[in-house]
Amino acid sequence: MSFSVFFAAVSITAALTVPAGAQEPGPDPQIINVSARSTVSLDGIWKTIVDPYENGYYNYRMKPLDAAKSYFADNDFDKDRTKLFEYNFNTDGTLQVPGDWNTQRLQLYYYEGTVWYRNIFRYSPEPGRRVFVYFGAANYEAVVGLNGEKIGKHTGGFTPFNFEITDKVREGDNSLIVKVDNKRHADGVPTVNSDWWNYGGLTRSVMLVETPETFIRDYFVRLKKDDAGKIDGWIQLDGKDASQTVVIGIPELKISHKVRTDENGYAEFEFKAKPELWSPENPRLYEVTITSETDKVADRIGFRTIETDGTRILLNGREIFCRGVCIHEEMPYGTGGRAYCREQDLVLLGWAKEMGCNFVRLAHYPHNEDMIRAAEEMGLLVWSEIPVYWTIQWENPETYANAESQLADMITRDKNRANVIIWSVANETPHSDARLKFLSSLVARAREMDPTRLVSAAMEKAVVGKDLLTVRDDLADIVDLVSFNQYVGWYDGTPEKCDRVNWTFDIDKPVFITEFGAGAVYGRHGDRTERFTEEYMEDMYERSVNMFRRIPGLAGTTPWVLKDFRSPRRQMKGIQDDFNRKGLVSDRGGRKSGFYVMQKWYEELKEQYGE
Ligand code: GCU
Predict the structure, then answer these.
(1) I need a surface site. Which of 56, 61, 194, 444 has the fewest CB within 10 A?
(2) CATH number of residue 569's parent domain
(3) Distance of CA 224 from the midpoint of ligand 1 (Å)
């Protein structure tokens, strides 16, 4: 066959097999509290193929291939060598799941593109049992296929998603294939520009979730807003047997409250209760059971109130100061990489506790669920955020839909965690009417989904006079906190500037400094004026704390950042080496001077607030 004829044949074939604009469906509604359900872990070593040109997904005209022609077909050259295949999962590489690929293979250090993952799992379907494949997260876009069929697509690198496979999973071996692509997109969330490494991969656990025909998919159990003598919330069943009697049980409170779900499987509830309240000093959790006629799920839930009163943040009616720190979701030691297990989360959160924190800002995206649950058990309040970061495409409706979907997934997953007190919709975003509209819609959506928590964003400072600083942002009128990042002493002047600036706020809301900091290489010493020395960091932190003492209505601080983290923006060899060095702890666990300045001040605040 001559070359031109060959391509003609391929193009005709390609045209016939690829439906125009083939779009995979999105995920099914998120199942919450999966750790309490019947699951089959798919974590471990997966077969992989690195596919920078997406050959396994597009034909040579960049049209999506029909599944049978794509890598989802999982064709096996070894089985039939008369057929033309140009890939073989059996002979390519492997990757650990969960885990990013950038830190598993040197060749993938900078890789941004597609990697195909395959897991052959053995299964025995049972009548009356439904099966979902659940992903803790995949950065950034995942297309999922099972037994040669594409089943769906998810966009967003930090939130869970699941697809029902009840009618697709078969007896014996099943071939689960996932195309993960971490390329950045200008219309993405985040966009192409960020100060963190764009780790790609199946970065969190993958599992099968097994449920009854009709099961308890979602629920919200909390102290009733503005009436702490009651617990209220709602339950959502999933399945055809929608109208059922459901019992909410809290054995320690001798509560067993019955409700009836409607024809959509939904029921609201409210009952009197006087639980011991969750707080950082007493992170009290209760066993809560939800039992329907066909399913039962248990969770550990804490009860507390959170509100603001003028410039005060009130937890359980008592004024608190949020003694915090910002944390990126990176492994505590070594060359970076997404943290992916509870043991790593416990190290990071242990450092925060050692510093004297009662609060962590989980930047700049939803962290893995274990991180939130571990923080809840340890008595750490949480600021949880979606990656609406810097220069987002504010006027792009698809970008907005993506952001709102990530916000909804974050709230859906963590709304029963007492320690989460703030949903954040953005970080350091440039002012414009389109940006204000975009963010106002996200704030409204957060309040609609969860009226019980504070909603905010990390804004930026403004100069309103000589050495007179404030926040000038219409968003501050809409959110619950005047929360902002400021770098006086690092990006804005040198540490001595902290001594002479003053802050003024004309909004009667709590002031919250969500970022400040300085870079330092652990163990690098020199004059206090020399950048990247521990002396400079100590000077900046000491003067910053003295400046904070002068800020009216300050209710919280979260220095940037707990630990040095990988960023492609930090390229000074010998000092940064692809790491942002503002960590109070080095990437090898060394506590820097700033760590101890914060520890001392937080100890003082703890006494001042009577904790
Ligand atoms: C910004 C941004 C962070 C970034 C930090 C820095 O405030 O929010 O994501 O890492 O500054 O420049 O180190």
Answers:
(1) 61
(2) 3.20.20.80
(3) 36
Instruction: For residues 307 and 288, give the distance between their C-alpha atoms in angstroms, rounded to a whole number.
Output: 24
Structural domain of residue 160, as residue ranges?
19-209
320-328 mean pLDDT: 98
Does any domain span residue 238?
Answer: yes
- Output the CA 282–ligand 1 centroid distance in Å: 32
Pocket test for ligand 1, best of 196, 390, 490, 560 (most atoms within 8 A of CB): 560
| Residues 83, 329: Cα–Cα separation, whole Å | 45
Report the 10 Å Cβ neighbour count for 274: 11
3-class SS string, 50-77: ECCCCCCCECCCCCECCHHHCHHHCCCC
Within 227-341, residue ranges assigned H as helices are none
The percent helix, strand, coil of the chain (3-state, each to 5) is 20, 35, 45
What is the C-alpha separation between 255 and 252, in angstroms, rounded? 8
Q: Is the pLDDT of residue 422 over 60?
A: yes
What residue's CA is closest to ligand 1, atom 4?
195
For residue 3, tell me if it sits in a domain: no
Whether ligand 1 lies within 6 angstroms of the CB of 385 is answered as no
580 pocket-lining for ligand 1 (C-beta < 6 Å): yes
Same structural domain for residues 219 and 205?
no
275 with 312, same domain? no
Residue 289 and residue 344 in one domain = no
Average pLDDT, the chain: 95
Residue 12 forms part of a structural domain: no
Domain C-terminal end among 174, 193, 209: 209
How confident is the model at residue 611, as a pLDDT? 86
Mutate to test the pocket of ligand 1, among 193, 513, 572, 580 (most ligand atoms within 8 A of CB): 580
Q: Which of 293, 318, 345 is the last residue of a domain?
A: 293
Question: Could you tell me if the CB of 195 is within 6 A of ligand 1?
Answer: yes
* Residue 10 domain-assigned (yes or no): no
Q: Give the ligand 1 atom nearest the CA of 567.
A: 10
Q: What is the CATH number of the domain that holds 263?
A: 2.60.40.10
Q: What is the pLDDT of residues 81-97, one digit of tens each?
A: 899 989 999 988 999 99
Q: Determine the average pLDDT of the residues in 371-377.
A: 98
pLDDT over 70 (residue 70): yes
pLDDT above 60 for 19: no
pLDDT of residue 537: 98
Cβ–Cβ under 8 Å, residues 183 and 190: no
Q: How many domains does the chain have?
A: 3
Express each pLDDT in 472-492 by its tens digit. Answer: 999 999 999 999 999 999 999
